[in-house]
UniProtKB/TrEMBL annotation:
UniProt cross-references to SUPFAM superfamilies, sorted A to Z: Magnesium transport protein CorA, transmembrane region (SSF144083)
A Pfam match: CorA
Primary location recorded for the protein, binned into one broad class: membrane
Membrane topology of the entry: Multi-pass membrane protein
Compartments reported by the entry: Cell membrane
Protein name (record): Magnesium transport protein CorA
Gene name of the record: corA2
Organism: Streptomyces rimosus subsp. rimosus
Transmembrane segments: 12-33
Keywords, ordered alphabetically: Membrane, Transmembrane, Transmembrane helix
Amino acid sequence: MNFDRMPELHWAFGYPFAIVLVAVVCTSLYVIFKRRDWL
């Protein structure tokens, strides 16, 4: 497999940034759905 084209491997904070981004998106969707009483 060719892993040279993955930008998160060349940036020191690539994986932590991706994990934080996923957490922020999930939390914001949860809050939005909870406020609209969809959950």
